[in-house]
Design goal:
The mean pLDDT is about 90. Helices cover about 40% and strands about 20% of the residues. It has a domain of about 90 residues: GMP Synthetase, Chain A, domain 3, CATH 3.30.300.20. The chain has a 4-stranded mixed β-sheet. It has a two-stranded antiparallel sheet with strand order 5-6. Helix 2 packs across helix 4. It is globular, with a radius of gyration of 20 Å. The longest helix has 24 residues. It starts with a helix and ends in an 11-residue tail after the last helix. The chain is of the alpha+beta class.
Length: about 170
């Protein structure tokens, strides 16, 4: 896809959202069910069922997906799509790119072994290996815009309002 095609595809959406801002507010959903045979959750992805379970560092078998890995995978997917869209819009010469995310966890926190150990990632590093001959200032602009428009990156970075409820069913 080239920049003109992308802009033409997005123009009616942008115009509609400018005229009717509430039309841009969409609720995304995810749903899963607890497995009755093991410590796992079957998550409906819209394409297949993903079975998430405990990481081996917390007693899992390693056969199920780890939700921490899934978070990093979502970040990589979103950052990669955003990078490609921004590169396309900027007519940035990009022959290819690899996106990598790493996150550091101290499993003492999630296992309740040490109260001073955090539950969750201490640090997340997102890296791009770009196949391009563009000058550094264009690369810097590409990264700045990718960071700005990557939904998953900004969600993690801005710490959205969270809530948790339980219903009897």
């Amino acid at each position: 896809m080239d920049a003109a095609t992308l802009k033409a595809q997005q123009a009616p959406l942008k115009n509609a959202y400018r005229e009717t801002p509430e039309a841009a507010l969409i609720t995304l959903r995810a749903k899963g069910s607890i497995d009755d045979q093991s410590i796992a959750c079957k998550v409906e992805t819209g394409r297949a069922i993903a079975v998430a379970g405990l990481h081996p560092a917390t007693g899992g078998s390693g056969l199920e997906l780890c939700s921490g890995d899934m978070l990093l995978e979502a970040l990589v997917a979103c950052a990669g799509v955003t990078l490609k869209a921004v590169a396309t819009a900027l007519e940035f010469r990009l022959s290819g790119a690899t996106v990598t995310a790493e996150g550091d966890l101290d499993f003492r926190g999630t296992l309740g072994v040490a109260k001073d150990a955090p539950v969750g990632f201490r640090a997340i590093r997102l890296a791009f290996d770009l196949d391009t001959d563009e000058p550094q200032e264009r690369i810097d602009s590409l990264l700045k815009l990718t960071e700005r428009y990557c939904v998953v990156f900004q969600t993690i970075n801005q710490r959205p309002e969270l809530s948790m409820t339980a219903r009897r069913g």
